[in-house]
Amino acid sequence: MPTAVDLKDHQMEASVFQVRLGLGAALMSLLLVLLLIRFFILQISDYDLYRTESDRNRIQLQALPPNRGLVYDRNNILLAENRPSYVLSLVPGQVPDLGRTLRDLQELLAISDAEVDKFKQRASLERPHREVPLRFRLSEKERALLAVNRFRWPGVVVGAQLIRYYPQAELFSHALGYVSRINKQEQASLDEVSYRGTHHIGKIGLEKQYEHLLLGRVGSRSVEVSVWGEAVRELERNSPKPGADLTLFLDSHVQRTAFQALGERRGAVVALDPYSGGVLALVSTPGFDSNLFVNGISTSDYLALRDSPDLPLYNRAIQGQYPPGSTIKPVFALAGLEYDVITPESTVNDPGWYVLPGQKRRYRDWTLRVRGGGHGSQVNLHQAIAESCDVYFYDLAHRLGIDRIHQFSAPFGLGEVTGIDTTYEHKGVLPSREWKQTARQEVWFPGETLNVGIGQGHLLMTPVQLAVTTAVIATRGLRHKPRLLHKINGEASAAVEPERVELEQEDWTVIHNAMKAVFHSPQGTARGSAQGVEYVMAGKSGTAQVVGIAQGQQYDEAALSERHRDHGLFIAFAPFERPAIAVAVIVENGGGGSSAAAPIARRVMDSYLLKDQVSSR
């Protein structure tokens, strides 16, 4: 009987082993080949792809927002600056549980639901890997609390930003405007690259007008980050380019004088350099604290401004449309001289009213209110301007007609925007037959021409228009576009050639002398404001009626509510020989222009022409 050893087939076992060894070697070779192929793909063939994917996890490209340009007045006083502020932001793509993280932060820092809602709105506009601010201007205590608890919340970042700040916010609120956070509508239309990392944009005024200069150019940096998303080291940097620094024609001293002179009253002051168009002052009262808007104004603060009967958000200087009253009489007097309707010696009889030929209605002179009569007989052009004789200009308007009044006044800038470099300017109304037919579907009546002749009726002007018109008169025909911007990074901005109103020099001289008499003659309407003046000035008072007074009734200011009283207006320029400043003032419901507005014009001119003396008093 054979044993177990005898039954073994060594040759067969060796053959099986060789087969198995071959299969194992083939399998190992195949796996090695596959490994080499995969290694080739990872390290050579698709190296750039996987290197990019690896770097994307390890390296972040972060936007570096530029510093917004600064704004200075003509004397290099800072009007708009950037102040450092610590900001709490979240990177939504790195936050495991956004809802819970927000609730935790609300408990820790007492963040309001409104702030959370605004954060969610901003987050919906951004990509998940970008920082979205939640709370601006962190206090030292809040920063300390976040530093201690930072480990609890991946994707929560505390960083430093420069936030816009207006040192003289209320004083320049309407002249500068303000920046605020970018909203959804703006985000949809903005260049994503230019505003990457920037959360604010100019909303109104100079800040909006020159957004393209103030913004600057965004930069970037590549940083290596930890698994928590924290920057470990900076690999590469492309520095941002700061926005341009702007120097304005505005004079802080003149601006403050005008603002303080208006006081608690509603009104506006615009002062120009008549030979350059530079805006020396642009004031609208009441103003508002523009810093409230920078990081999003609260609902209560906004409602208080919006619902105020004094309309502090309304820029009266460029948007207020008022009847210019008698301040427009010098222009119409020039029209009369140009069309040979009158001469400097032409006179009228003023009993206190004017009657159109063939009619019975009396168009009253302002003197009828205060002394029951007119300016007397033989009132000439000089006296008519110095004493503001309405009857003279009723007669002049009737003889000119509305067509010639419209044709002559348009080159002075009436009825169109001045082009001042700010936002939302209104253009006023220079009426004509065509305008009334289009706007009202009505024909023009002769009595309406008389009302226009004394700056009432359909004629409306903004204070900045009135200032430009004053500058045209002061310079004997040069009409500059008013400009706030003077220099960009210290270099003067390009000047725009003025338009010219061509008239006879003798006509300009007649009007200048008559306007000088407003201040410096015994009968001038603003003689009280010329007491102690150290230079010669020229001007014209105006009173714009707010409510109509029926025939046969007297104007009783005491019987009217304050907001139904007349507006007081005044225009002026000085020094008389070579004007350096042209001013337009309106005081809403202030009464007569000579009493309410002329003293303000005098203070504004003093502050500019006698700055050293005024500041030392």
Beta-strand proportion: 15-25%
Radius of gyration: 37 Å
Mean pLDDT: 88
Helical amount among residues, as a percent range? Answer: 25-40%
Number of E-state strands: 23
Unreliable sequence segments = 547-556
Q: Could you give the distance between the termini?
A: 141 Å
Oligomerization status of the protein chains: single chain
Number of helical elements: 25
Structural class: alpha+beta
- The shape, in one word, is elongated
Molecular structure report:
This protein is of the alpha+beta class and 617 residues long. The strands form 7 sheets. Strands 2, 3, 4, 5, 10, 18 and 19 form a 7-stranded mixed beta sheet that branches. Strands 12-11-23-22-21 form a 5-stranded antiparallel beta sheet. A hairpin with a 6-residue loop joins strand 22 and strand 23 (581-587). Helix 17 packs across helix 20. The chain is elongated and about 155 Å long.
